[in-house]
Backbone:
């Protein structure tokens, strides 16, 4: 019983590592996966108020957008999708470094990571119960 | 092969959901690393081995280490004051409904791709490199400028400002030596 399952697992792994074999799931499903990943990131961005988690959600969204480029590139057998992934990687690295520096500044100034603490631009008077 | 795609995709989705619902920042980052690794598996079986390697090296390696360093520097506790009601439905229901509406629109229009053929081969790194340094050469140079701007910006924002304290305002040490200027 166990040996049978092991054989099956070995077969799956061999199948996965065989050079030149690619997935044949329809593009619709692949794009649905990317969309679900993006919407997870979007929901996290809207719900969380901790600014580090907001940055993490942006990372999830950028990653899923890059996934769409790679899916399209593999669909039409063009290298352009992967090139675009490299550019998205560059943009994301620059964004994260500047964003984390800003978070450090915010923490030094306000002693909190709550995004709602930054309300100096708020126009109306502060109320007790917003 | 398709089984592996489904397994990797569900692991990525579950760990992404765990990332955004976790209260502890370090745990959320570890879940995010799992998510990135499984997306990297998806890249590999989509026929993009270079991208799979870059995802592991740059995303899970470099960017996540940056995040973890900042979380450790700030010494973040379990939860912020404003996120006490994080897991109540009131906080989650509106963003989830908005996301589901977007998902419905996507599912509605995605029938366009239904009759297309699926991918059949691997795009090797050589093709990507040739395309990167011929067709997209100008974009590579612009990306270099962007990274330079990122370095300068992060350095400038992360610099600690020296506080200037007048020497008469600094209390002299008890043994009567030179006053120590606070930095």
Residues:
């Amino acid at each position: 019983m166990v040996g049978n399952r092991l054989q099956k697992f070995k077969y799956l792994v061999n199948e996965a590592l065989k050079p030149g074999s690619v997935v044949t799931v329809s593009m619709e499903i692949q794009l649905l996966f990317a969309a679900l990943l993006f919407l997870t990131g979007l929901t996290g961005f809207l719900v969380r108020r901790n600014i580090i988690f907001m940055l993490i959600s942006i990372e999830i969204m950028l990653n899923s957008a890059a996934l769409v480029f790679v899916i399209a590139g593999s669909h039409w057998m063009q290298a352009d999708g992967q090139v675009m992934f490299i550019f998205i990687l560059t943009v994301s690295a620059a964004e994260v470094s500047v964003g984390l520096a800003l978070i450090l500044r915010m923490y030094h100034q306000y002693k909190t990571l709550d995004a709602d603490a930054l309300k100096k631009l708020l126009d109306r008077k502060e109320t007790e119960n917003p | 092969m398709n089984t592996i795609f489904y397994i990797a995709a569900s692991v990525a989705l579950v760990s992404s959901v765990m990332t955004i619902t976790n209260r502890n920042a370090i745990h959320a980052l570890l879940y995010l690393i799992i998510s990135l690794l499984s997306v990297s598996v998806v890249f590999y079986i989509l026929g993009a081995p270079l991208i799979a390697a870059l995802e592991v090296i740059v995303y899970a390696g470099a960017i996540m280490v940056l995040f973890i360093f900042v979380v450790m520097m700030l010494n973040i506790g379990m939860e912020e004051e404003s996120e006490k009601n994080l897991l109540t439905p009131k906080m989650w229901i509106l963003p989830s409904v908005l996301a589901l509406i977007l998902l419905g629109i996507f599912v509605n229009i995605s029938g366009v791709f239904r009759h297309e053929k699926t991918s059949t081969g691997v795009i090797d790194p050589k093709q990507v490199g040739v395309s990167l340094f011929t067709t997209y050469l100008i974009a590579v140079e612009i990306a270099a400028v962007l990274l330079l701007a990122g370095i300068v910006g992060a350095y400038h924002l992360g610099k600690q400002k020296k506080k200037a304290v007048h020497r008469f305002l600094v209390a002299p040490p008890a043994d009567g030596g030179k006053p120590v200027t606070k930095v």
